[in-house]
Every structure is written in structure tokens, then in C-alpha cells.
Amino acid sequence: MKSIATLLAATALTATSAQAVDLEVTHWWTSGGEAAAVAEFAKAFTERTDHTWVDGAIAGSGGTARPIMISRITGGDPMGATQFNHGRQAEELVEAGLMLDLTDVAEAEGWTDIVFPSSLLDSCTIDGRIYCVPVNIHSWQWIWLSNDAFAKIDTPVPTNWDEFVAAGPKLREAGIVPLAMGNQAWQTAGAFDVLSIAIAGVDAWRKVVVEKDGAAAAGAEYAKVFKAAADARALRAGSNVQDWNLATNMVITGKAGGQIMGDWAQGEFAVAEKVAGTDYTCLPGLGVNEVISTGGDAFYFPKNGDPAVEAAQKELASVMLSKEVQVAFNLKKGSLPVRGDVDLSTANDCMQKGLAILAKGNILPSGDQSLSPDTQGQIEDLMTEFWANDSITAEDAQERYADIIANAD
Ligand code: GAL
After folding, report:
1. Pairing verdict, β 81-85 and 256-260
2. What atom of ligand 1 comes closest to residue 30's alpha carbon?
3. pLDDT tier at 365 (50, 70, 90 boundaries)?
4. Beta pairing partners, 284
5. Which atom belonging to ligand 1 lies closest to the Cα atom of 186?
């Protein structure tokens, strides 16, 4: 027979854990499309639970926001939940014992049967325990083309990278910047990675980025990539913007012919009420190698110690993965859901292309899932220099890149 004290304590804990909590959620989703999407999470959490979503948006790119998130967690001022990308960005925080173990929720809800591809949950798993909830699949492997820009130069909208490059001079003559690209490290490094897969092919890319083979990075296939990157650098001249969504806006308004960018760009076209296939065209894999890379986002929950907060954190994880919320969030975000059992019939032409590639299994891990944040940082630094400085030749850049890969972890 349980003592009265034990029963009272259990009741108190239950009462506490049902206690309403204000949960601060940090993320870097501040563009129009991103804000519309994250509002779906906030609405669902506040409507479906007794808790309140306290929005902790951090302006700027992930590269700006992540150091702030990490220093708050390591500095004893943790938020309730935070965004990181799929992969290894929170690896050290988990290993330091600072992040909440979600395995009980994951097992109770069957996440291993729900999440597709399973590699997304693998990226949340360390020593057999699950520490994050994947919320979307964002693929970098796209170029977004302005149908207006190509109509202006009386040229069919390109169907692949070579046709896009060939249209460069006519776009220039018409006062249109061929390639829009913001001047931030993650954008130039991301675009380079997309060119790698399109130009060198999936096998060569895997050898370099997944197997970290320095010789392959120094080889003939990647020499073609660096040549294409030098071509792209010339096409990008005049794209004088910083943030990715300002570069996307150049395509939306026809000031640029195209942008190599992840499919979060779709959120911006949606907010501008542009229609895929009518106002803009998307080429997965630059129309060369149609693949989906599993970039995207997951939410992690710093340990808090208060059972009520921990219960609210686990409820948020559950809400984010629920069917209805997965559809509502991803349709606004321009990303694909992390579960295959949802109805996306309302997805637009470009999302349907992405879903078809996903269904075929033409899936690659993202660089964030393969390389350490330190190696990613070195590549971003090299790309910042290369894309900003014409005096760095393709050969010089390739030599330095191969050295980074040879020493990658
Ligand atoms: C990525 C993130 C996307 C997107 C993008 C630009 O790292 O996965 O959700 O928003 O940053 O902010």
C-alpha cells in the first residue's frame, strides 16, 4: 500500500508537470516566408497545449544565431527549445550532458517508424538516445529562375546549368544580374556544394564530402567544379546584397535571372504570391543530377531541471512532429515533411518535384550531416575569399579545398 506521502508527492509532480509553462523557443527564421512558417508551430503549441510559445527569433543567418544559442546553453541561461540543422551542430552540447533526452517520447510515439528518411533521426541519435525532433527536409539542390527575366531576353527558361550559363551575356545586356547570391559565407559555400553535385556528380561528391578523400577533391572531376564556380562568380557580379532572401527577392522581381538556394526560398515566392511554374521555375539538382539533400532543421531542448518545463518541452516535440502541424508548417516553409504519411496534395509544382525525387530515394546527406562544424567553417572561409576575390584562381582554390578535405573530421 503506497504511503499517503508518496501518493501526495506523485499528485504534486503530476500537477506540476501539467502546470502551464512559457517556453522560449530560439530560431533564426526571420524572413517573410520563415516567419509565416514558424508561426504555424507557435499557433499549434499554444492552441494544443496549456503552454505558451515565447518566440526567440534571432535575426541573421544560422551562422550568426548558433553561437548565441550555444553560449546561452553552456553559460547557464538555456532557452526552452532551439533550432539547429540536421547533423552535428549540437553534438558537443549533447555529449556535455546539456540536452534533454527525448527517447521516451520517441518510443511512445514510434518516431523510428514515422520519420522518413531515417537518417534524419540518426542525426538526432547519440549513443542510442534521441536528443532532437526533426521538423523538415530542406534541400539546397535547387536553382530558382525568374520566368520574366528570360522572357525579357526572348530566351526559353533554362532547363539545366549549362543553358543558364549560356544565357548570362544576354541577361547582362538587358541589365539583369544573371546569378543572385548574398554575400555571406554559408551562401557561397552552399552554392559551391550544389555545383559540386551537379558538375562532378553524386559519386565524386560522396567521395569528397562523405568519405573526406583529399585526392578526389584535388582530382579532375573537382577541377570541373572549380571551373564552374569561377563561371558562377562572374555571373554573380552585381548581386550586391547580404541576406539570402534579398537575393531571392532579386529573382522574384526579375532583377536577377536565377539563384542557387535551398528550397526555403519557396517561402519567399509564396509570400510574394508568385506561382511555381508560372512566375518562376525550379530546377532540382540544377537540372543535371536530380537529387534531394537532407538539409533542414531539428529542435533540441536544453536540460532545465524543472519537471514542468521538461514535460512542456516533450509536448512541443510531439506537436512539431504531428501530422497536421507537419503539413501546416512545411507548406509555408517550402520544405518537405519528415513523415511520409501526410497529405501534401496542396503542395506546389516545385514541392511536388522534390517529393517525387524523395520517393525515388535520390537522397544525399547534407554537408552538415557529414562534416564537423569546424570543417564546415574552414570551407566557408575559403569560399568567402574565393567568391569575393577574382584574383584567387580556380586552381588555387581547389588546392586549398583539397587540403581542408584531407584533414576534415
Ligand atoms: C537553413 C535552415 C532553413 C532556412 C535557412 C535560411 O540553415 O535549415 O530553415 O531558413 O537556413 O535561414
Report:
1. unpaired
2. 12
3. confident
4. 142
5. 7
Q: Which secondary-structure segment (H or E) carries 129?
A: strand 129-130
- What residues form DSSP beta bridges with 115? 339
Ligand 1 neighbourhood includes 34 CB (under 6 angstroms): yes
CA 369 from centre of chain: 11
Q: Which fold has domain 142-293+371-406?
A: D-Maltodextrin-Binding Protein; domain 2 (3.40.190)
Ligand 1 pocket residue status of 376, Cβ below 6 Å: no
- Residue 8 clears pLDDT 60, i.e. is over it: no
Cell 550559363, located at residue: 165
Instruction: State which of 58, 138, 336 you would mutate to test the pocket of ligand 1, scoring each by most atoms of that ligand within 8 A of its C-beta.
Output: 138
Looking at residue 340, its pLDDT comes to 86
Can you tell me the distance from the alpha carbon of 218 to that of 55, in angstroms, rounded to the nearest whole number?
45
Cell 539546397 identifies what position? 140
Q: How many CB atoms lie within 10 A of CB 220?
A: 9
Q: What burial class does residue 128 get, using C-beta atoms within 10 Å of its C-beta: 0-12 exposed, 13-18 middle, 19+ buried?
A: exposed
| pLDDT of 52 above 60 | yes
- At 43, is the secondary structure helix, strand, or coil? helix
Q: Bin 110: left if φ > 0, else alpha if -120 < ψ < 50, else beta.
A: left
Q: Where in the chain is the domain with CATH 3.40.190.10?
A: 4-137+295-363, 142-293+371-406
pLDDT at 14: 44
Q: How far is the CA of 16 from the centre of ligand 1 (A)?
A: 35
Across-strand partners of 292? 363
DSSP structure string for 260-276? E--TTHHHHHHHTT--B
The predicted pLDDT at position 18 comes to 67
Distance of CA 373 to the CA centre of its chain: 14
Topology of domain 4-137+295-363 in CATH is D-Maltodextrin-Binding Protein; domain 2 (3.40.190)
What Å distances lie between residue 93 and 78, 89, 302, CA to CA? 12, 9, 9
Distance, in Å, from the CA atom of 291 to the CA atom of 288, rounded to the nearest integer, reads 9
Residue 400 has what pLDDT? Answer: 98
pLDDT tens column, 229-242: 999 999 999 999 99
Compute the distance between CA of residue 147 and CA of residue 349 in angstroms, rounded to an integer: 14
Residue 307, classified by CB atoms within 10 Å of its CB into exposed (0-12), middle (13-18) or buried (19+), is middle
Mean of pLDDT values over 163-191: 97
Cα–ligand 1 centroid distance for 386 (angstroms):
23
